[in-house]
Amino acid sequence: MAQIDRLKEIVETLRSETGCPWDRAQTHTSLKPEVIEEAAEVVSGINILERTNDAENLKEELGDLLLQVMFHSVIAEEEGIFTFEDVCQVVADKMVRRHPHVFSGVSYSSREEQHAAWEEIKKAEKAGKEWYADYLPEAFEEAQQLIEQAKARKGLGGRG
Question: Which PANTHER family does the record associate with it (predicted)?
Answer without folding.
Answer: NUCLEOSIDE TRIPHOSPHATE PYROPHOSPHOHYDROLASE
